[in-house]
Amino acid sequence: EKADKVVKEFPEVNDVFSRIGTSEVATDPMGVNISDTYIMLKDRSEWPKANEGKKHTYESLVGAILERLEKELPGQNYLASQPIQMRFNELL
């Protein structure tokens, strides 16, 4: 819940939700102490200008979000990936 609030502070973010605890899908086991946070971004044309009058790139936005999360909510492990990339990595 706190992480969702931190992420929602970024103007590029359209919506955020988290899935916490065990999965309902037997092929996607997840412990009760783990959560997945999904971040839906606004269309790139709606992103405001960031530093030096330039828009964030996807990579710089992800870096800024992770940096803010680590600063405001220390002691957690954060990983950013695209949904298809995450599923592929889980299969390996």
Written overview of the protein:
- The protein has 92 residues and is α+β, with helices and mostly antiparallel strands.
- It has a single domain (2-91), classed as Alpha-Beta Plaits (2-Layer Sandwich), CATH 3.30.70.
- Helix content is 34%, strand content 16%.
- It has three helices and two strands.
- It is globular, with a radius of gyration of 15 Å.
Notable traits:
single chain; alpha+beta; Alpha-Beta Plaits; 92 residues; 3 helices
Structural class: alpha+beta
Number of helices: 3
What is the chain-wise order of helices and strands?
HEEHH
Radius of gyration: 15 Å
The N- and C-terminal alpha carbons lie at a distance of: 30 Å
Q: What is the share of helical residues?
A: 25-40%
CATH fold node name: Alpha-Beta Plaits
Under the CATH scheme, which class?
Alpha Beta
Describe the structure in brief.
It contains 3 helices and 2 strands. With 92 residues, it is of the alpha+beta class.
Write the SSE topology.
Layout: H1 2-8, E1 13-20, E2 35-41, H2 58-72, H3 83-91
Antiparallel strand pairs: 1-2
